[in-house]
Amino acid sequence: MKVLIVEDDFDTADFIKRGLEQNGDTAHHVGTAQQGMVLATSEEFDVIIFDRLLPKMDGIDAVRILRGSNVVTPIIMLTALSETADRVSGLDAGADDYLVKPFDFSELYARLKALTRRTPLKQEALSLNIADLRLERTARKVSRGGQALDLNPKEYQILEYLMLNPGQLVTKTMLLEKVWGFNFDPKTSLVQTHVSRLRNKVDKPFDTELIKTIRGCGYIISDHD
After folding, report:
1. Which CATH code of 2.130.10.10, 3.40.50.2300, 2.160.10.10, 3.90.1150.10 fits the domain covering 2-118?
2. Is residue 160 within 8 Å of 139, Cβ to Cβ?
3. Rounded to two decimals, what is the model's pTM?
4. Given this model, what pLDDT does residue 203 score?
């Protein structure tokens, strides 16, 4: 991945940059929104990391300007502000994801990988397929091996998000934010409970397990071991 980091806190930027480079990725760092916009509109990046609170220009305003300039590069915003209204403002401005500081690099990296795999074509696809599992997005129907599966709304949302990111780690935090719309509480078993119920319907009656648990991290949906 080629990643642009727009972050005025140099410790945070260095933490991200080192993590990316250790994974074989390329990272470019600038400290202001203005510098970030110049690079975002003049160079090609796979994903942009934009801090929310920047000097002189707010990150949300910068993202809004970039989207107005037809920059479609995936953007994840970082912030020390955890209020739901603040997160909604960032997403409304055009950010694709939102991560609250402090965070583990593994969580950020999983989100970056998910964003780089999320092509517009895939997002607009009317159906998603993995092995014999099929999800019809318009009709909101799910079947496996031609057999209809009865999922509740949360189970459907979890499965859809997993299938939009096949073969990629989806963390519990990502699911909690995408499906329930709030930040991670390490004491909650909400995600585990719903994924367990989903697996009982999607995997248990069949020979091949598709939803795999990565202990301590999250889940991957794949038809490979």
Report:
1. 3.40.50.2300
2. no
3. 0.61
4. 96
